[in-house]
């Protein structure tokens, strides 16, 4: 797990969100990082305004297939929102 950033989900928040995260597809490539870490990385990018390449080293590698793929599948490019959260938060 990464350091305690203000954008990180608490355990209680993660327990509420976890059931909403799609399971890995059968026959697809296995997940190589924890989805809690992926969500925390997404929230870090959204709240800090940094790029994927500038994620702190204690988050999953920005090139991890799970990180980029999951973010893109949740990102609404027409409204600049991910998970319904405005990118300026």
Query: Tally of extended strands?
Result: 3
Q: Strand count, sense and closure of the main sheet?
A: 3 strands, antiparallel
Q: Compute the CA-based radius of gyration.
A: 13 Å
Please work out how many helical segments DSSP would assign. Answer: 3
Task: Please explain how this structure is put together.
The protein has a domain of 60 residues. Helices cover 35% and strands 7% of the residues. A three-stranded antiparallel β-sheet has the order 1-2-3. Strand 2 and strand 3 form a beta hairpin. Helix 2 crosses helix 3. The C terminus is likely disordered.
Descriptive terms for the model:
89 residues, disordered C terminus, 3-stranded antiparallel beta sheet, single chain, 7% strand, mainly alpha
Give the structure's gist in a few sentences.
With 89 residues, the chain is mostly helical.
Write the layout of secondary structure elements.
Elements: H1 11-17, H2 35-48, H3 65-74, E1 75-76, E2 81-82, E3 85-86
Antiparallel strand pairs: 1-2, 2-3
